[in-house]
Amino acid sequence: VPVQTVPEPGVPTEDAAILGFLQTAELAARDLYGAAIEAGNDDDLYVGIRDNHQAYSDRLSAQLGRSAPARRAEALYSEWEQRFQASGAEFATAASELESTLLATWTEALGRLVGADGARTGASILMVEARHAAVLADLAGNGDDLAAVLENSAEPLQLNVEAQG
Amino acid sequence: MTGRPELNRRRFFELAGLTSLGGVLVACGARSSGEEPGRVGYAPPIEPLPTVTVDDPVILRTMTSMEYVMLDLYQWITDQGALDEQATALIGRFVEDHQAAADALAERTTEIGGEPYECANDWYTRRVLPPIEAAVTGDDAAGIPPSPEPATDLLRISYGFETVMSSSYQKMIELLKAPELRPQLAELGAQDARHSAAVAMLATGTPEGYISPVVLGAEETPNEQGADTLYAIPARFGSLTATEITIGAPNEEGTQAGFAVETPADNAYVYNDQTCPA
Fold it and tell me: What is the ipTM of this complex?
């Protein structure tokens, strides 16, 4: 008869700020891909990844309710905007690095989230963002470099919940 | 003529019915010896199941045992000698990663006061792997022919199990009581997701194997043998559902065998009082 010791369900107040920050990061990623697609990088892969980031933001909105910021992190968008206007391998490299950064940020956030709901959402998102990063590394021409495809050396975004854009 | 009523057919059924009803009422009124349901025969008394706890050490021990399942699986895959040079190199890298993961989890188990479990998960070793391996090698006794395309099947098995590992870490992250343990499991799960993506790109080719049409809002159609194409990005969110592995020689209808591999649950957890099989 197994008894499980699991965290409490729901989104505690301290988690809402972290998840809100991550929503702004996901929306910045969505807009960066959107701008790249408009600039001619309209491959199905990029459309799919853009829509995935929109879906992650939607999931966070559902959890956060009215406290969801529902806007992109402007500082993050500005930092990456120019690199997302490139094309070919240069653009794929930038996209792979952004995905690795988001993955690292979610990974760090999981260690700070108190409730189970935020942890569940974060885990389900980062497992796919890891796949985004691997695919984009291959598309950038690094398919034979196993370290580029399989490892993540990116630094996480600073989880400064005051600076949401 | 006596006062005794005639026992005709109708009267007989009335008496039989009353007798049966009386018997039921008597039985209902009997005192029970306890709350438990009645038992028939001379079976020994039921012993209550022990209460076990799924705490953080159990989660780390379980995932350590799953890493050893992966190491055993890749040893078996390598032993088949069917993979080409590129696939063999990829599997070699996976083996390094899984061994490092197993060692890191065992060390962390000790740090949180648990006893590391450094051997393969018995449930998967005895129940999950054998039929999958038989679908590739064949089993004369069971009437299973060997696979005509072992290299393809071995990559499908690798993809399936790496996906299951990623899903397992995803599930365990939610179950962990201590948030500070989550990042380590997230890193290991993300690494297995990348493994799965790399196998998909190798097996399916690129760019065809990059992203599933399902993610793009279209439908995925299995091939003639019933197998789905392997995609590096198969879904929008990480999934906790069973992963289907379709492999083996086609049957007379032309379809291959499908094996649904699930993430560890109650029967596969490595509880704190369990030790490695002798």
Answer: 0.93
